[in-house]
Amino acid sequence: MVSKLVLLSREESLAKIQGESLDMYDAMAAKDIRISITSSCDMEDLQDSDIVVITAGVPRKTGMSRMEIAVPNARIVAEYSSLIAEYSPNSIILVVSNPVDVMTYVALKASGFDKNKVFGLGNHLDSLRLRNMLAKHFNIHVSEIHTRVIGEHGDHMVPLVSSTSIGGILLKNYALGGTIDIEGMVKKVINAGSYVINKKGSTEFGPAYAIANIISTVLKDEKRILTVSAYLDGEIEDIKDVCLGVPVKLGINGIERIIPIKMNDNETKALLNAAKVVKKKTEEVMKNL
Prior knowledge:
Elements: E1 4-8, H1 14-30, E2 36-40, E3 51-54, H2 70-87, E4 92-95, H3 100-111, E5 118-120, H4 124-138, E6 145-146, E7 149-151, E8 157-159, E9 165-166, E10 169-170, H5 171-174, H6 182-190, H7 192-200, H8 205-219, E11 224-233, E12 240-251, E13 254-258, H9 265-287
Parallel strand pairs: 1-2, 3-4, 4-5
Antiparallel strand pairs: 6-9, 7-8, 9-10, 11-12, 12-13
C-alpha cells in the first residue's frame, strides 16, 4: 500500500525524526513490512506525494484548550499548505493540527486545492472513542457498534444517537432493558484528549491509528464512509463556508461525496450551533493571518 514515507521537520528537529524513523523500522521488521522512510527538512522531498499529513503546530499542554493554539497554528498550517501546493500539487492534504476544523479551512484556502482534496481528522477519532465506550458498556465486540460523532472536534461535537446501532439494532430498541448515560459518554469523549495529555503528556496511539485508517481508506480506494472535517457548501442543513466533521465517502481522489444525514431535532439544532461556533472561530483566525 505505502512504499515510501517522508518525515518532514524543521532543521532543528531533524535528529528527532531520524530517531523516529529508526524506531519505526524496528516496528515494521516485526510486522514484515517493507517501507522506505526518509527523514528530511527539505520540502522538495514531498514531490509526487499521494497524501501529505499536516501535524505541525504548537502542542497542547495540560489545561490548554484547542482554541488557545489556533492563531499560531494557523500561521504554521498556512505556510506548509502553500508549500505543499508548490512542491506536491497533485497530493491530498490530511490535517491533524488543532483546532482541526479551523486548521482544515486554513489549509484549504492557503493551498488553493479543490475541497475534495483537503480534509481533517475531525470526528473520526471521536467516533472511534464513542464506539469503544459503547462496546465496553454492553460488553460486545467493537465491530458490532455502529455510531458516529459529527460537528466540531471539541466541545460542540454531536453524537448521532438516533442512528446508533448495535448489531444492526437501533440503540433505542437495544437498550430498552436498561439505562445508558450517553451524555456522560460524550463528555468523556470531549475530554478524552485532555485526560490522556494530563496523564502522559500527549496523545499518540489513538490519533496515529485513526490517521492510518483514513490513509488506508484513501490509498486502497475503499469507498468507506468516515467522519472527517470537510468543507461544507450547503450539502447538510444548508451549512456553508465552514469545515465540520461530517460523514463522507472517501476514495483514491479524496472526498467523493458528502453524505446527507437524517437527524432528530436536537441533533440538527446541535449541528447548526456547532457550525455557527466554528465559523466564528474560523473568521477570527483568518483575520489574524
